[in-house]
Amino acid sequence: MALSMSILASSYNIAAISPQLGIIRQLFRPGPVYMDLLATSVLIGAMVAAVVGGPMADRFGRLRILLFDLLTFILGGVIGALSWNMWALLASRVVVGLGVGLDYVVVFVYASEIFRRGSAPSRMMLIMFFANFGIIIAYFSGFLFDMVGAGLSWRLELASGVVVAAIPIWLRARLPESYAWLQAEHRPVRDVVRRVMEMGRGLFKVYSIPWFLYQIGDQGLAVYMPYLLSSDLHVTFTDGAGYSVIVKAFTIPASFAAIVLVRRLGMLRLQFIGFIARGASLLMLSIFILASLHMDLAFVILLALAFFFGAMGPDKTTVIRPTGWSDTQTRGAFQGISEASGRLGGILGVLAFAVAPDVLPGSGFLLISFTCLAGGVVTVLIGRAKASSLASVDPR
């Protein structure tokens, strides 16, 4: 429960700004460069923290990092809620991003070491299930806060992230340190990094590229979905946040399906199906928009299906697969580098969605449909390479 609530807090804090982007743009009228920075700042912080936090967790322990990252959520939330200017708000999102990056590294590394090998994939998928709830709650709270008044809604939303982050702290305090880490030799950080780099580019291709390709679309949609829905459906920002709750709710049954199917299909096959089906849904959506077919119900259904198939496959597999390869001494660093590649993809996706509507309507959805289809192809190609060259060292 402590790990699940931690991931819920992370995902909530990622998405907390999303329902407020339209409000912030309307209230303060910042320039487009600032809005791009605000949308990507949490991902920039997460990317930096993933690279640094992974080796730190290998050297100093899992629990120390787990407790520290929740404090960054609280600090970032307080600064954000009390922001005295737009640059303070931007800084608060970077601080929150540091906690997100640390959390997604250490939670799954720790989980992979305390769960039995056979049950680890499905139990880690259950932890990832709570990420969906975090984003849904963030959208719903944005919907509620927007009804209070646009002048206060963004401050209330960021302040609520402090409350959400505070809940898991006392749960984490009761967790034991990973026995596997306690038994391992704790090398200096530079030795950990050197050993990870010596693993070779082939290993990073297996785990990092699919995570990168998936996050291009996932983070772009997660950050801009309330704003996109309010624009494409011609509704208010408040209603856009409400529709986002409905669309994102499709990830709940999808997550249950992933937990059931992972043992039957395996993670690679599940990842392939999710990538291809998500890409097909988004491709159809982009065609509808490009053809100027104004069908609001079809728009919502296709977007919901895209979220369903993403949550059923690569949303889970790309995060948990890297923990299964490396040993205890380098597991955090390896997970961190893999996660950083995903955060980089997320930054590119957010920027693409910011620019795409001005280039061609529907082009953002078209772009991420291609990245998803590419993810399916890469999964097949890399899966074959992995089976032939890495099977002896990767139990998954």
TrEMBL record:
Q: Name one GO molecular function term.
A: carboxylic acid transmembrane transporter activity
Bilayer-crossing regions: 31-53, 65-84, 90-112, 124-145, 204-229, 241-262, 282-309, 364-382
Q: Determine the domain of life of the protein's source.
A: Archaea
> Keyword set for this entry?
Membrane, Transmembrane, Transmembrane helix
| Location, primary (coarse class) | membrane
Give the membrane topology, semicolon-separated if more than one.
Answer: Multi-pass membrane protein
Subcellular locations according to the entry: Membrane
Name used for this protein in its record: MFS transporter
PANTHER family from the UniProt entry = CARBOXYLIC ACID TRANSPORTER PROTEIN HOMOLOG
Record domain Major facilitator superfamily (MFS) profile: where: 1-387
State the SUPFAM superfamilies in the record.
MFS general substrate transporter
